[in-house]
Amino acid sequence: MKKKKNNSKLKNLKLNPRIIIYVLLFLISLFLFRWLSTVALFIIFATITYFTVYISIKVEHVTFDTYIATSCFIGYVFGPLYGIIYSVLIGLTAFSVARLNQYTISNILIATICSVIMYYLPGTFAKAFIVTIIIRSILAVPLFMMLGSNHLENFTQTISLTLVNLAIYLPLLNLIYLFFK
After folding, report:
1. I want to staple 52 with a disulfide (CB 3.0 to 4.6 A). Which of 59, 65, 112, 121 is the partner?
2. Between 56 and 128, whose confidence is greater?
3. For residues 66 and 107, what is the distance between their CA atoms, to the nearest angstrom?
């Protein structure tokens, strides 16, 4: 009996070890890129937050800090645990410039709550962000009034932070979200 010739190229194909190494390096680089870009995002957000909190402390009656917005973003994209860690660590270090007091601790608490709430809201990032910022404003006004803050300053800071978050930070964070999605 004659053997049939199998002209299949797959049987004659030899895997070059270099190809396997290149494929593995490519897969590892994809994983590392995601990890490194996440670390870079945390560092960039923290730096911007420190700067904007410092400026907001120096300018009375108006606030434009990125602390709430970045805490919400981290919580939405990476999960509530990362949102809690980010909002507490960055909040404690950023607001230590203004001395930690009942107002700054309350702000850290509100940011932590917002980062968790945003993760569980259904819908798109933009819708969840808008709802979270509205919830933040609803929580902040009575809380700060109970703590005895200046009513005019409390009102102007809440309005300015809400407008800045919705008009400026929402579009920027939405673009960044498209990258990390």
Report:
1. 65
2. 128
3. 12
